[in-house]
Amino acid sequence: MTKSMVKPTAAKGYVPINGANAILAQARMIRSGIPCQLGMASGEEHRYTAKYSVHVRKLAAASIRHHQLGGSEVLYEPDPENGRYEDGLHRRLEKAALRSLYTLGVDEGEVIITARPGRRYVVESVRMKGGRNQAVMSAKGGPTEGGNTLNETGDAPITPSLLIGMDPEFVLMQDNGQIVFASEFMARGGEVGSDAVRFSGGGHLPHCRIKAVTQSRP
């Protein structure tokens, strides 16, 4: 993992979800078990809390910015060799950001997260590419990045109404039935890699995980 001091800046091309779209997004995230208070983080009680901006591309955290009280920011990037964050806090922030965007049906964006005591967090804002927030939160949907797609005959554009995603997980097993840790063969993160699930007793079981890119059709 790399760390550097940078000047405060927002990711270009992203706009925050606000207004009625923010209300719909927050309701959807809460139903998925994601703690969030979209657009409600300007009070005095939030002044001294640790705030992070997680920039996500292809359902992986490309960078994490830690906002400092003096106005500067600390930029963290994943290890260039294995593509993962070694710090437990940063891994939790990445997971929270991925869950948020995945719930809203996109694989790219910026998620503003406030860290709370006891390994808790609250999502304060979600930023997407311009025009994507209306498309995601609308029941009718809208064109995805790159413009409209063609229908089955290829002669007329269509607008997809939904984005479909999946996140299959499985374990590797030997012939004798014993489970093999996926982390021995796959790096953590990326489209195909290893993850870990906590089981009773406090241990972790590394398993395989495939992060498929969302599509308008199966």
Concise summary:
Helix content is 16%, strand content 32%. With 218 residues, the protein is of the alpha+beta class. It folds into 2 domains: 2-134, 2-Layer Sandwich (D-amino Acid Aminotransferase, Chain A, domain 1); 169-210, no CATH class.
How would the blueprint of this fold be written?
Elements: E1 2-6, E2 14-16, H1 19-31, E3 51-57, E4 60-67, E5 73-77, H2 88-103, E6 109-116, E7 120-129, H3 132-137, E8 149-150, E9 157-158, E10 169-170, E11 172-173, E12 179-180, E13 192-198, E14 204-210
Antiparallel strand pairs: 1-5, 2-7, 3-4, 3-6, 4-5, 6-7, 8-9, 10-14, 11-12, 13-14
| CATH C-level label of the largest domain | Alpha Beta
CATH topology of the largest domain: D-amino Acid Aminotransferase, Chain A, domain 1
Biggest beta sheet attributes:
7 strands, antiparallel
Write down the domain tally. 2
Low-confidence stretches: 139-160
The CATH architecture assignment of the largest domain turns out to be: 2-Layer Sandwich
- The computed structural class is alpha+beta
> Mean pLDDT, as a whole number?
75
Question: Which strand order spans the largest sheet, edge to edge or round the barrel?
Answer: 1-5-4-3-6-7-2
Give the beta-strand count. 14
Number of helices: 3
The Rg value, from CA coordinates, equals 19 Å
| Oligomer state of the chains in this structure | single chain
Overall 3D form: globular
How much helix, percentage-wise, in residues? 10-25%
Proportion of residues in β-strands = 25-35%
Distance between the termini: 35 Å
What is the H/E string? EEHEEEHEEHEEEEEEE
